[in-house]
Amino acid sequence: MLTFKKIVSRPVVVKLKRPIKAKIATIDDWPLVVIDLYTNEGIVGTSYLQPYLVKSLKYIIPMINDFNEVLKNKVLSPFDNYEELRKSLHFIGYEGLSLIAVSGVDMAIWDAMAKAANMPLCNFLGGSLGAVKAYNSNGLWLEDSNILESEAEELVDEGNFSAIKMRLGRENFNDDLEAIHTVRQVVGDHIKLMVDFNQSLTLDEALNRCHKLDDFNLTWIEEPLIYDNFDGYSRLTKDIKTPIQLGENFYGHRELYKALQIGASDLVMPDFMRIGGVSGWLKSATIAEAAGIPISTHLYPEVGAHVMRVSQSAHWLEWLDWADEIQKDPFPKENGFIKIPNKPGLGIEWDEAAISKNAYS
Question: Are residues 257 and 192 in the same domain?
Answer without folding.
Answer: yes
